[in-house]
Amino acid sequence: MAHVTGDWNPLGQVFYRKQEIYTLGWRDIDLDKFVVAAAPYGGPVALIRDETKLVRVQGSIRPVIYIYTSSGREISSIRWNSGHVIHLGWSCSEELLCVQEDGSVLVYDIFGQFKRTFSMGTEAKEMKVRDCRIFNSHQGTGLAVMTSSYRIFMVNNVDEPRIRRMADVPGLDAPPSSWVVISQDRQSRVLLARENDLYLLDHGGQYSRQLAPVSQQVEAYTEMAVSFNNKYLALFTNTGLLWIGSSDLERAYCEFDTKCPQRPKQLAWCGTGAIVGYWENILLMVGPGKDYVKYNVDSTVHLVPELDGLRILSNYSHEFLHKVPSVVECVFKIGSIEPGAMLYEASREFQNGSPKADEYIRMIQDRLTVAVDQCIQAAGCEHEPTTQRMLLRAASFGKCFLSDMNPEPFVRMCRTLRVLNSVRDFTIGIPLSCAQLEQLSMPVLIDRLVLRRQYPLAIRVCQYLKMPEAEGVSRILAHWACYKVQQTHVDDELIARSINEKLRDTPGISYSEIAAKAAECGRTELAIRLLEYEPKSAEQVPLLMKMGRDQLALAKAVDSGDTDLVYTVVMHLKEKLTLGDFLMTIRNLPTAQSLYLQYCKEQNREMLQDLYYQEDNFQESANCRVMDSYNETRMDERLRNLQQAQEAYTKARNEFAAKVTEEQVRLLKYQMRLEEELKRPYLDLSLHDTISQLTTEGNHKLAEQLRKEFKVPDKRFWWLKIQALAEGSDWAELDRFAKSKKSPIGYEPFIDVCLKHQNR
Predict the structure, then answer these.
(1) Which domain range does residue 733 map to?
(2) What membrane topology does this protein have (predicted)?
């Protein structure tokens, strides 16, 4: 066990260890000459030359921002051609935030591609930014800037920036001695020190003076640091006193005299159990019980606070300083008699073929379940795969003596460690701990692999963890395809084929999304090729219209058989094209044309007439006029429509329809005249009903006149008059009519109507 505990350092009742996780791959980098920004959770590192330490040379040299993995492999670089950079930092989604002196914030991805920009407001632009803090808020990644007028402006979420001005500190006419952002209880506030006065500022314009429970006289708080979880605070004074307490300043845990009044280059929390100060060549770690550990460093370092420790970047190595977990202490602490330690020893003795293994097992027979759990948990806390294997082997050995042991925790830990070891690899460079992964979650880790374009590893992780395809492999392949279409140096046909070969029928993949990305990159032909693989027409058509391929969109919509989709394209074309071009376009597709005609019948009758006229379709034009005539309330408009219909029927050589329409016009005119004379309704009655009504009312001369006018056949007229007279009970007129001349229909109908109406 000596090799495991060799780097442990006691700090009060607990131990801390500093483990080297990488020998850095960057060359000739002296961190002393750079401004360093490292993302938490094993994220990337950004470097830019520190302009305060540059040697002046002739001409102008543009600065370069270098982006590396945590293992020191270069990912990308950005040749800076914008304003003066005040501060670099990372968002929680691993986007690089570059804060300029004029208050502009430029956002880049880890490959140095510009994504967006926003400003911190007019005052920041006019007064210039002199200092900046990037912090984690309840909404995401927050940003606070201090202007040269010593006012602080804050956004709680850089993805949706809403600028809030913090309260002004009275009488602040010089730079504050130190300040920090504390994000707690869904609210972000600024703790600012003006010499020995502390002020808590919020965005409601309120400030409150704070008193830290410090036992000694303080002239100025020169440095402060808040813990990763925002619960603890460390204050460093100009006398060298280090105060550690709660972030609300209610509780003091300890005061430690560093005997060094010089302000530390960096003050950062190591998890939540200790604070680390960095001075030239020295790291001083202080615990809440006034215990301390001193580390000597031989080069400039940069401290990166983490959830469970502190990452230390130097010119050559990347180390992780953290508290030794209690479960690891139980197993490996020298002289430990915990069940886990005994099981570990038993496993080692068993591998060496020693009978002592049996003695150790007998000693912990009744606590074997605890021993197995301790070994499993300890394996998760170890960074070295060899130590992990030894602990898991011990756990597996212990399980052999338990019949009712649940194998799930063991299997889950094996899977987790396999994933962690693969992403910790030097080529990937994400040195996550088990606790960090638990906080980050597996889907977010997969997203980060996708963000780094580590598609094969991301897919293998998903397959290994048996994640649903829609959440795992399909989503990653879609990201890969979207990246593939951005490769402008590769031929369109080659890219389309390789994407199709890779994706095939993978469930949950939308080719339209990939095509949209290709169109966004200006590769229209590639987008069209990709859309050929999209099985859903409803996904194809909108994108084709967006790209201006309207005729192809219309053809696809027609082929789909979806009338709603066809209407969508047709109406889009109608708005976009001139009437002539529009009609020429739909004429070539009968389905589209007939659907448009149907639309016009219901919505736009004038357009329908124009269409029939252009097509020389006189028959349908006439039918349309007849239909329209009966929707008119004014009689002159109705007659005009019918007369136009008659002309159209004549042109269509439909003599019967033309004749019928002409007679209808004559009948309407006759009915209008009757209404004027008799003051009774006759309009819209048929010829039969008109004659019948006139007869019933006793207007026999007018009925006779109408018969002659419209050449009603004798037989039909006699039948009609007999029934009308009987219905009107005009038996005298019926008698006269029977005797007027010989009946063309005989006399049986006279007898029938008399019997029908009970007149024997």
Answers:
(1) 689-759
(2) Peripheral membrane protein
